[in-house]
UniProtKB/TrEMBL annotation:
<comment type="similarity">
    <text>Belongs to the beta-class carbonic anhydrase family.</text>
</comment>
<dbReference type="GO" id="GO:0015976">
    <property type="term" value="P:carbon utilization"/>
</dbReference>
<keyword id="KW-0479">Metal-binding</keyword>
<protein>
    <recommendedName>
        <fullName>Carbonic anhydrase</fullName>
        <ecNumber>4.2.1.1</ecNumber>
    </recommendedName>
</protein>
<dbReference type="InterPro" id="IPR015892">
    <property type="entry name" value="Carbonic_anhydrase_CS"/>
</dbReference>
<feature type="binding site">
    <location>
        <position position="98"/>
    </location>
    <ligand>
        <name>Zn(2+)</name>
    </ligand>
</feature>
<feature type="binding site">
    <location>
        <position position="41"/>
    </location>
    <ligand>
        <name>Zn(2+)</name>
    </ligand>
</feature>
<keyword id="KW-0862">Zinc</keyword>
<comment type="function">
    <text>Reversible hydration of carbon dioxide.</text>
</comment>
<dbReference type="InterPro" id="IPR001765">
    <property type="entry name" value="Carbonic_anhydrase"/>
</dbReference>
<dbReference type="Pfam" id="PF00484">
    <property type="entry name" value="Pro_CA"/>
</dbReference>
<keyword id="KW-0456">Lyase</keyword>
<dbReference type="InterPro" id="IPR036874">
    <property type="entry name" value="Carbonic_anhydrase_sf"/>
</dbReference>
<dbReference type="GO" id="GO:0004089">
    <property type="term" value="F:carbonate dehydratase activity"/>
</dbReference>
<feature type="binding site">
    <location>
        <position position="95"/>
    </location>
    <ligand>
        <name>Zn(2+)</name>
    </ligand>
</feature>
<dbReference type="GO" id="GO:0008270">
    <property type="term" value="F:zinc ion binding"/>
</dbReference>
<feature type="binding site">
    <location>
        <position position="39"/>
    </location>
    <ligand>
        <name>Zn(2+)</name>
    </ligand>
</feature>
Length: 214
């Protein structure tokens, strides 16, 4: 822990050197533009990979960046970000080499987390034909990561929070990104409402208002 305190003091000193009022400004409140829903993986720091500063990005993280409609933690973060903070862009960010996705692709039992991984297994089942057609295991793994991001953005779009924001005319944009740990680059998976409409009838969603996308 001593390293953490030492690094903190050095970070504070550097920030104050750059701007003596830096922390006074932060203490006045936050108005982030982005909500980042990412994986808990320690190699994927939201602010680090996006180049954002404190106060610019609201963050929620869990195993494999999953959006579950019964997850009150995520829904509370989403509602606060959209309805109170007024974020304009909501990002679901996965990453290649995701341990959660890899575990979901196999048949090994891990305990409690298996219940969480079933959300990813649902994605695999939904796209089984495409994934089974990919013979190279690494390519299939990477594609599963991408499809998981796309389906989690779909889940995000289904929430009453996002639907109500869109119906109210709020300028809300949804994005699906994948981070490549091997080179540090973010990839846009090009999610759009057109991808989602094939499932819309099953959920009886009001799609009168188009959500903006990247």
């Amino acid at each position: 822990m001593e390293d953490i305190f030492k690094n903190n003091r050095a970070w504070v000193a550097e920030k104050v050197k750059q701007d003596p009022d830096y922390f006074k400004k932060l203490a006045l409140g936050q108005k982030p533009r982005y909500l980042f829903i990412g994986c808990s993986d320690s190699r994927v720091p939201a602010s680090g990979i996006s180049g954002t500063q404190p106060g610019e990005m609201f963050v929620h993280r869990n195993i494999a960046n999953v959006v579950v409609h019964t997850d009150l933690n995520l829904l509370s973060v989403l509602q606060y970000a959209v309805e109170v903070l007024g974020v304009q862009d909501v990002i679901v960010c996965g990453h290649y080499g995701c341990g959660g996705v890899h575990a979901a692709m196999g048949d090994q039992q891990f305990g409690l987390i298996d219940n969480w991984l079933r959300n990813i297994k649902d994605v695999i089942s939904l796209h089984q034909d495409e994934l089974n057609s990919i013979t190279d295991l690494e390519t299939r793994f990477r594609r599963t990561v991408e499809l998981n991001v796309i389906e989690q953005v779909n889940n995000l779009y289904k929430t009453t929070i996002v639907q109500n924001a869109l119906n109210a005319g709020k300028p809300l944009r949804l994005h699906g990104l994948v981070y490549d740990i091997a080179n540090g680059v973010l990839k846009d998976v090009k999610w759009s409402t057109e991808d989602f409409k094939q499932y819309a009838a099953s959920y009886h969603l009001p799609i009168g208002t188009e959500v903006e996308q990247s």
